Amino acid sequence: MSTFYFIAFLSIFFSILVITAKNPVHSILYLILTFATFTVHYILMNAQFVAIVNFIVYMGAILVLFLYTLMLINLNKDSEPQKSNIIKIIGFIAGGCFLVAVVAALKAYQTSQLVVLQNPNLGLVKNLGKILFNEYLLPFEVSSILLLSAMVGAVLLATKEPKTT
Amino acid sequence: MGLTDILIKLGLIVIIFLISLVIAMYSTYAERKVAAFLQDRVGPDRAGPWGILQPLADGGKMFLKEEIIPTNANAFLFIAGPSLAILVSCIGTAVIPWGQQLVIGGHVIDLQVADVNVGVLYIFGVVSLGVYGIMIGGWASNNKYSLLGAIRAASQNISYEIAMGLSIIALLMTTGTLSLRHIAEQQTGFWHGHWFTWNVFSQPLGFLIFIICAFAETNRSPFDLPECETELVGGYHTEYSSMKLGFYLFSEYINMFVSGAVMATLYFGGYNFPLMHHIHSPNLVAILGVVVLFAKIFFFIFFFMWVRWTIPRFRYDQLMDLGWKVLIPLSIANIVITGVWITYFK
User: Fold this and answer.
1) Per-residue pLDDT tens digits for B251-278
2) Which one of A21, A28, B140, B315 has the fewest beta carbons within 10 angstroms of its own beta carbon?
3) Where are the domains of chain B?
4) Which residues of A touch B121 (CB under 8 A)?
5) Is B125 close to A56, i.e. CB distance below 8 A?
6) Mutation test of the interface with chain A: which of B72, B132, B169, choosing the one with the most A Cβ atoms within 10 A?
7) Do B154 and A75 touch (CB under 8 A)?
8) What's the rounded mean pLDDT across residues A156-164?
9) Whole-number average pLDDT of chain A
10) What's the whole-number mean pLDDT along residues B232-239?
């Protein structure tokens, strides 16, 4: 349990650093560390497959692309251009509303129900695969179609429109 | 787990770490000798007999060179880059099964540091982390050439990881396990029933895709675009000097060693060798297995060098075309073929 609290502390600490860091590239590096702590959380929950996939997909691919994009567009500028006061006020109000909503949601569900796993080894690859392809086959396939359509949409947006002349 | 077991594991870790470093050191020497052989030259021959002390001289030089951190560089990340590169390349060896179990005085010694049940994915994760060292170092140098090298490294690694992952999926369909030890055990001997046991004979296309991707992931020629000296001065390590440069060069050779070990384990039977069932002493088989595995790894390292000094470097758009338009469709086709083969012929 103490390991959990330590890792949870690190997660929150690094995520705070993500939003307070001045330099966007530093933000991404802290985000990488945050995801690394998530991987440890998954391992603590005995979900090894999710842990390693989180490691490969988020830390190894998505954040590399984040870093890639930032390095391309923001060539070593230490900070972003100053935002106007009105944007700051809007951001403050929006953030405050979100905080209120989150607190209210937590208030509404004071006693959270503990989810008891039927099989403590659910996170191992073999069990996970069997459950995904038996019990949850439909949601699994539907989500894969969703991803496919997102991919096709991205390609469609990226290609230039053919000239109509 | 008793104290002896912990000591044995610790010893194994230290030995593997030292072996990776020594192999990386002598790979630099081997590279120059192979290059010399292929170009009909002599190569390094002054330090010691046949120049075998050359890596020590190079290492000494690396340590003693002046340490330079450019004024406008981000000092912390500038140092973190090469450190991360060498750290990530060293942790890949943790899940490789180096041989069968040794039994010494009642103690069973596993010649593997950690038998993780998602070993293949662990290797894959380490590979995908490898690019951070290059990216961070290239960005922190505050130099346009370094930045271009870092960006090239990122896009190249992301592109080839996809094809590599897809080629591994086809392999996993035939093996049915993610543990490297189980995969090595399945390839025992050389010939079983009516077909070879080594995976390269059931997954030839997958192996071809995998080895091409391994070249790209280790940034080796013909895919060494991140450090392409004709266009980018020195690529991501333009600003680096002394041992920080040494770490980058070293990590490339350790990566070669690790990817050789992974290819040998996944496709070339790991520590298994023909006629191993005719030797009755298990310890002898284990030791011979380690020797055989290292022979395979050395062959792959030689192959990396052979290709480097034979094939000219790709152009950047050719590299991307090969990755996205050739290797990914091919590896998807390989998955489909493997699926059909498993359904109808097994």
Assistant:
1) 888 888 988 888 888 888 878 878 777 7
2) B315
3) 3-48+61-345
4) 49, 52-53, 56
5) yes
6) B132
7) no
8) 75
9) 81
10) 79
Residue pair B247/B83 in contact (Cβ under 8 Å)? The answer is yes
Give residue for tokens 């990776």.
B20
Q: Tell me phi and psi for residue B109, to 5 degrees.
A: -110, 120
User: What pLDDT, on a 0 to 100 scale, did the predictor assign at position A116?
Assistant: 64
Phi and psi of B41, rounded to 5°?
-120, -175
Q: How many whole angstroms separate alpha carbon A158 and alpha carbon A145?
A: 20
Cα A67 from Cα B49, distance rounded (Å): 48
| Best mutation target, A57, A62, A71, A127, to test chain B (most B CBs within 10 A) | A71
Q: Could you tell me the two tokens for B117?
A: 């049940």
Show contacts of B61-66: CB within 8 Å, 24+ apart. Answer: B62/B242, B62/B243, B62/B245, B62/B246, B63/B242, B63/B243, B63/B246, B64/B242, B65/B241, B65/B242, B65/B243, B66/B241, B66/B242
Tokens 């994760």, residue? Answer: B125
pTM of the full predicted structure? 0.83
- Tokens 């569900």 -> residue: A109
**Mean pLDDT computed over every residue of chain B:** 84
Closest partner CB to A25 (pick from B122, B124, B139): B139
